[in-house]
Specification:
Organism: Asanoa iriomotensis
Keywords: Coiled coil
Strand order of the largest sheet: 1-3-2
Pfam family, one: PadR
Largest sheet: 3 strands, antiparallel
InterPro entries: Metal_resp_DNA-bind_regulator (IPR052509), Tscrpt_reg_PadR_N (IPR005149), WH-like_DNA-bd_sf (IPR036388), WH_DNA-bd_sf (IPR036390)
Protein name: PadR family transcriptional regulator
Number of helices: 8
Order of helices and strands: HEHHEHEHHHH
Helix content: 55-70%
Structural class: mainly alpha
Amino acid sequence: MLEFAILGLLHESPMHGYELRKELAAKLGSIRAAISYGSLYPTLRRLQSAGYLTEAGEAAPTTPEVPALTSKRGRVVYKITAEGKERFADLIAQAGPETYDDAGFGIHFAFFARTDQATRLRILEGRRRKVEERRESMRDVLARAGERLDAYTLELQRHGLDACEREVRWLEELIVNERSGRQPEGRKADGSAETSPHVQDERP
């Protein structure tokens, strides 16, 4: 997963180590906890050894976006190679069961803009099946053991079930959009859809 994310970010532009760490956190959002950032530099070294990355110099200690006390390895600028781009193309085209799990799906979804439509659709449908199975399992637990669960455990199960149902609805919306060739609607922080500035309000 970390290899995929690093190659994806460097495919967009070269970055120094400090910037790469920041972009990984921003790009991956809530799923970044699934990745050990202590493995970032070992992964970078491995990708270099494989010929997927190369060092393109070092950012000066006075570079504005790099804190003055950043270590030397945090200032090294990394650039993807032609082999690295081929490797990223192979990874982004994958749509197997590993892309349906929480972390795998999150990583691939973060790079959906660079993924072809057919692959996006396979991953979304696979993820929906995965979440539907989880939802049915939770429903079964509540039906069979609900009376034996204490109030807090029961509430936790209900919370998990609600989360599954929301995700299934979200995935179904995305699948409909993909099949019709539409991109997802932008969402504001409060969850409402973004409104185009060119759309007039026709209400009286």
